[in-house]
Recover the amino acids of this structure.
């Protein structure tokens, strides 16, 4: 399931994301403004992690240089479970995991046609342009857009899976019924080696709330927090590293 | 994005205080215009592709003795103005705060419709939800619990089949029950969420509603229409279908319309009956001493098979009166009265006469071409093929800084460039709109122009005709490529909804063709008459001669054409097909004055001209005067430049 051998492209992702050394939270440079009226103002080099409020020096030119100099590709950790739409074979049905693209306008343009995480889509053709079917809508897309749409193929039901999404209208993680069965997080993660691997790769529970399952959903806007709001899973985002495979968090 | 259209809309916006206003809103291509037509009895162009309606149409309806103002708006997927046509809708909804909204939904695509419903619900306006195309939902095995949906949303829900008129009476009765939807989403109130987050939340809510009200069991076998849709976007079969469509278009418009029909109308109807009759009538009414010339009129009734040959069904020739004449006493100086009579005679039936030139050009040559084109075009539009064509050409359009979506206005441009320029509103960025408008004006001839130009290809070799076509296509791509690099701005993503393939409704095809022909007769024929009148005046004042002499270095020196053709380019400013008809006259027939090489040069030059003066007005309305002026200042010198290059370089190449 989660085997080594997946190498991923780092170059496209780390440009603007910062990684908190304390809590392993990934965040964007823009939401790090200093909030306590420091006289240094914008000359201050420190950035603050929005998750744990730890302040640390952000990217500086020298640090960046050193980083590039001694940068080694990270060891591959897990096989990708979700693939870009462009790698899905023609004629296959799949479930949308996340929309990766950089600009919000494009994601919204796709959303109004019903392409949101959790929706079922069928790839009808790839050439000369991609044609996908979402519900009763046939949509033509360019290859570049298709490369930003991450999907997962439907798999046969496995033991230990907590929710099965309804066949016709898969629901979004945040709309899971409140009375769904819940397994304590610790036990659950330890039980399943795949999820254990996920945890090692940086996923962990933040705040209050219970991690129910590392099912499939995407991070929200920044790719880190779940739409469920009350619980937070810190870790990798969908864009480059490991797709945040829909952790389902129960509000607590 | 800037609001180009607000001025236009608010100018006639004040809503009537007495009557109520209905606004039709909904996703693109769900049948708003059909329903609008059903309620108001007013025909709005209806097709099977998103973006047919780009402007607001107003109509009136009397329902239960009450007057309603009804507005039909361009389709929107959400209430944010990203494209020009979406802006139009947003402004209309905003400018009529007391209007009842009638949301038309495609019953098959209820999920997307509910997304819009929730956005409309946030406006707190009375709403009626119409589930249109219930017949198609039945066909694909779906069912909607209408009552339950109505209870959840808190608004009347009316199932209809607009094309068959089913459910329209129910809609009329339920207009009074329109109320503000009771549905709301948490995300709408969240100020931190962006459009995407909110829409995701709305779609999540839509899923919940659908789970309770909507079932679908898709038939296991795809229908023939579906298969046809898939074939037409297939990389190989799609090209074959494209070639088939193109060949049929060429045959139907180029050979049957521009060949058989034009022959019949020009040589028989006008040449043998209308023109001689008019000449005789005018001679009787305004007698002055002269003798009318005669000419031999040949007529072949042919069933064309290929551009080269066909089956001749019938042939005859006859001697008829010609518009030219000679005076009985050439040297005499007649009095004022005969001179006035002669002037009037010339104005009506002379070589630049209204009847003999303007009417026979516009009705005998252009009308059959336009009719056959519009007929075929309406068929293609209603079948849903055009958006699939966009997939096939997306890559080529990428070179031109556009995406496949721009093929819709381009193809519409083959019908009428003026309308196509308005359709560029479906494109998302200004850059794309400017490029598409420029290319439309530069190298997409409208049906009338295409017909005349195709007729001119008869005067040159097949090789030269292909050269003309390739040159035009090459210029289009080259100028598009250059413009994409020069103009600032971005090209938008290619995301296009494909409507289902449908069997065209004969009644809609006929009504639409008639509506377009009416437009042609009302707008183009007067321009032809005006052009002829201007030419007539210039001819009588001897200005034509002087202008021709003025343009001599350009026309004779650079283009290598005879002096008389300057007239053609002069009227080409008005409408390029009108100029082309002049060239056609000079190029074909028994008294051809142009060599094949000259015909090619003239064709290339006139093809690159601005399509017509009306297009110029529309460009300045859509993109502003500055852009319109820039486009004009580029097009005319460029046309002459390329024409001259063809003259000099083409000579070496042996064309």
């Amino acid at each position: 399931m989660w085997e080594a051998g997946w190498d991923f492209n780092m170059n496209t992702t780390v440009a603007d994301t910062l990684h908190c050394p304390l809590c392993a939270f990934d965040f964007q440079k823009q939401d790090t403004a200093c909030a306590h009226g420091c006289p240094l103002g914008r000359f201050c080099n420190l950035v603050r992690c929005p998750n744990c409020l730890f302040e640390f020096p952000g990217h500086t030119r020298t640090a960046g240089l050193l980083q590039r100099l001694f940068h080694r590709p990270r060891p591959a950790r897990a096989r990708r479970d979700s693939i870009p739409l462009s790698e899905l074979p023609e004629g296959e049905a799949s479930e949308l995991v996340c929309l990766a693209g950089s600009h919000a306008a494009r994601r919204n343009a796709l959303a109004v046609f019903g392409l949101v995480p959790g929706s079922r889509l069928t790839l009808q053709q790839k050439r000369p342009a991609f044609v996908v079917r979402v519900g009763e809508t046939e949509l033509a897309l360019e290859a570049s857009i298709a490369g930003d749409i991450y999907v997962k193929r439907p798999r046969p039901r496995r033991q230990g899976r907590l929710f099965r999404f309804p066949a016709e209208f898969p629901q979004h993680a945040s709309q899971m019924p409140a009375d769904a069965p819940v397994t304590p997080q610790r036990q659950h993660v330890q039980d399943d080696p795949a999820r254990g691997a996920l945890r090692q790769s940086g996923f962990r529970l933040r705040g209050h709330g219970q991690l129910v399952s590392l099912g499939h959903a995407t991070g929200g806007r920044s790719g880190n927090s779940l739409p469920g709001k009350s619980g937070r899973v810190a870790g990798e985002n969908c864009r480059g590293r490991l797709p945040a495979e829909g952790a389902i968090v129960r509000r607590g | 994005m800037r609001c180009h259209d607000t001025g236009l809309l608010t100018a006639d916006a004040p809503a009537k205080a007495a009557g109520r206003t209905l606004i039709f809103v909904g996703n693109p291509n769900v049948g708003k215009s059909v329903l609008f037509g059903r309620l108001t009895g007013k025909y709005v162009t209806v097709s099977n592709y998103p973006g047919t309606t780009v402007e607001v149409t107003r109509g009136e309806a009397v329902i239960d003795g009450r007057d309603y103002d009804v507005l039909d708006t361009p389709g929107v997927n959400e209430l944010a103005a990203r494209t020009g046509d979406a802006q139009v809708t947003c402004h209309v909804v905003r400018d009529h705060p007391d209007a009842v909204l009638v949301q038309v939904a495609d019953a098959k695509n209820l999920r997307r419709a509910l997304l819009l419903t929730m956005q409309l619900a946030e406006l707190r306006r009375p709403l009626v939800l119409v589930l249109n195309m219930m017949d198609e939902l039945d066909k694909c095995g779906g069912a909607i619990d209408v009552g339950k949906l109505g209870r959840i949303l808190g608004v009347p829900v009316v199932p209809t089949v607009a094309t068959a008129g089913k459910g329209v009476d129910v809609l009329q009765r339920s207009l009074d029950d329109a109320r503000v939807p009771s549905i709301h989403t948490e995300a709408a109130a969240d100020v931190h969420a962006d459009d995407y987050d909110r829409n995701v939340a709305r779609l999540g809510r839509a899923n919940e509603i659908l789970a309770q009200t909507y079932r679908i069991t898709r038939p296991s076998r795809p229908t023939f229409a579906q298969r046809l849709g898939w074939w037409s976007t297939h990389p190989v079969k799609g090209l074959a279908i494209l070639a088939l469509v193109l060949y049929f278009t060429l045959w139907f418009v180029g050979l049957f319309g521009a060949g058989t029909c034009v022959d019949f109308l020009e040589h028989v109807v006008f040449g043998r009956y209308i023109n001689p009759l008019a000449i005789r009538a005018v001679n009787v009414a305004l007698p002055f001493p002269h003798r009318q010339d005669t000419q031999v009129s040949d007529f072949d009734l042919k069933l064309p098979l290929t551009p080269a040959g066909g089956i001749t069904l019938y042939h005859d020739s006859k001697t008829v009166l010609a518009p030219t004449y000679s005076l009985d006493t050439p040297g005499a100086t007649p009095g004022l009265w005969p001179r006035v009579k002669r002037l009037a005679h010339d104005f009506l039936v002379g070589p630049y006469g209204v009847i003999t030139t303007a009417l026979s050009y516009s009705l005998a040559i252009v009308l059959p071409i336009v009719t056959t084109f519009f007929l075929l075009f309406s068929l293609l539009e209603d079948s849903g093929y055009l958006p699939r064509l966009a997939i096939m050409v997306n890559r080529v359009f990428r070179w031109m800084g556009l995406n496949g979506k721009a093929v819709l206005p381009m193809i519409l441009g083959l019908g009428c460039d003026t309308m196509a320029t308005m359709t560029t509103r479906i494109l998302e960025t200004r850059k794309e709109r400017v490029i598409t408008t420029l290319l439309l004006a530069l190298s997409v001839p409208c049906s009338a122009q295409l017909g005349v130009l195709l007729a001119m290809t008869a005067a040159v070799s097949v090789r030269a005709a292909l050269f003309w076509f390739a040159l035009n296509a090459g210029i289009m791509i080259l100028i598009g490529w250059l413009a994409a690099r020069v103009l600032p701005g971005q090209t938008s993503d290619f995301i296009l909804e494909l409507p289902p393939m449908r069997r065209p409704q004969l009644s809609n095809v006929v009504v639409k063709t008639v509506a377009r022909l009416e437009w042609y007769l009302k707008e183009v024929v007067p321009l032809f008459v005006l052009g002829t009148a201007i030419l007539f005046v210039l001819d009588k004042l001897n200005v034509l001669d002087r202008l021709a002499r003025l343009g001599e270095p350009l026309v004779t020196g650079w283009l290598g054409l005879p002096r008389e053709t300057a007239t053609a380019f002069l009227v080409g400013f008005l409408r390029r097909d009108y100029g082309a008809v002049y060239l056609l006259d000079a190029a074909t027939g028994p008294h051809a004055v142009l060599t094949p090489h000259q015909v090619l040069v003239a064709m290339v030059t006139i093809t690159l001209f601005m399509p017509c003066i009306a297009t110029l007005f529309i460009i300045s309305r859509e993109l502003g005067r500055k852009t319109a002026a820039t486009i004009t200042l580029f097009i005319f010198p460029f046309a002459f430049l390329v024409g001259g290059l063809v003259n000099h370089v083409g000579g070496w190449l042996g064309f």
In short: Residues 1-18 of chain B have pLDDT under 50 and may be disordered.
